[in-house]
Amino acid sequence: MPLGCDSQVSLSEVSCGESTSSCQSLEHGSVPEILIGLLYNATTGRLSAEVIKGSHFKNLAANRPPNTYVKLTLLNSMGQEMSKCKTSTRRGQPNPVYKETFVFQVALFQLSDVTLILSVYNKRSMKRKEMIGWISLGLNSSGEEELRHWTAMKESKGQQVCRWHALLES
């Protein structure tokens, strides 16, 4: 039975300020990127993932800006889904601002054994969606940057760590 996750509107004091260096886009040309804020509270066992914003999101089928949302899925060490949730849809924005925070219950002893997958989708019509890209953080991180971000979160003692990540193509 997957646990639901709590969604909360992010508080500006917790949210990553535009001025901090970690909040500058990686500038990979026009590669789709996503800015994520991670925070873990060992006392409460709460993992907070803030989907802050995206850049260079494309509509692959048409030449107009995409309608996007981000799906978050938490997997255990066996790859089974523990929890999932998604942001609301941002319409017609290649550089959408989400500022939505999702909270997952993860005990400290489980923290090294979970994987958080973030998938960005373009909602084309009622039924159809296409994946713009994805990243994963934690046990099965999709790359070095993602692993470094997860490690930085674990070492940050309850402070939010914000980083840009280039999305991998599906």
UniProtKB/TrEMBL annotation:
Entry-linked InterPro entries: C2_dom, C2_domain_sf, SYT14/14L/16
Pfam families for this protein: C2 (PF00168)
Domain C2: start-end pairs: 30-165
GO molecular function, one term: phospholipid binding
Family, similarity comment: Belongs to the synaptotagmin family.
Protein name: C2 domain-containing protein
Taxonomy of the source species: Eukaryota, Metazoa, Chordata, Craniata, Vertebrata
